[in-house]
Amino acid sequence: MCLAIPAQVVELRDGDNAVVDLAGVRKEISLSLVENVALGDYVIVHVGYALNKLDPDEAAKTLALFAELGQLGDDTTVH
C-alpha cells in the first residue's frame, strides 16, 4: 500500500523542484503537477511528486491522524 502524505515546502529549487519537510525528514520532490506553490505551502506528496496543495488546517488534521495511528513521530505539528 502506498500513502500520499502532507508535507511543507521549505525550499524552492530550480525548475519544478522543491524540498519538503515531514516530521524532520527533508526530501526533494517535483512540483511539476501543481501550480503556484510557494514557500511554506503544504502539498500532498506521493512517490516524489506533489499532487496538490493542501490547506494548513487540513494538513494539521491529517498529520495528527497519522501520528495517532503511529505512522509518524509525535513532532508532526503544523507551523
What is this structure's SSE topology?
Layout: E1 5-12, E2 17-22, E3 25-30, E4 42-46, E5 49-54, H1 56-68
Antiparallel strand pairs: 1-2, 1-4, 2-3, 4-5
Shape designation: globular
The proportion of strand residues reads 35-45%
Architecture in CATH?
A: Roll
How many structural domains does the protein architecture include? 1
Which stretches of 5+ consecutive residues score pLDDT under 50?
Answer: none
Summarize the amount of helix as a percent range: 10-25%
Tell me the number of helical segments per DSSP (H or I, 4 or more residues long): 1
Spatially, the strands of the biggest sheet line up as: 3-2-1-4-5
- The oligomeric state is single chain
Q: Kindly state the number of beta strands.
A: 5
> How far is the first residue's CA from the last residue's CA?
28 Å
Radius of gyration: 12 Å
Succession of helices and strands: EEEEEH
Here the CATH topology equals SH3 type barrels
The biggest beta sheet reads: 5 strands, antiparallel
Indicate the mean pLDDT.
86
